[in-house]
Amino acid sequence: MRAQPGDKLVISGHQVGEPKRIGMIKEVRGDDGGPPYRVEWDADGHTTLLYPGPDCTIEAIGHHAAVGAGR
Hints:
Blueprint: E1 8-11, E2 21-28, E3 37-41, E4 47-50, E5 56-59, H1 63-69
Antiparallel strand pairs: 1-2, 1-5, 2-3, 3-4
């Protein structure tokens, strides 16, 4: 999993009807875009340090989204 600051991180709901958690990656602390990530959550502005699990996806925002789309 690779990310850049400004990317969107989404955690899927684990139960039927449970909403997704959506946040913006503010800082990438791992090598070459790897975790952990400092994430600011949209719902309440709370910031956490996160090692994403298999229920997470990253949506690239900005320039590298266009570059990655051609792969």
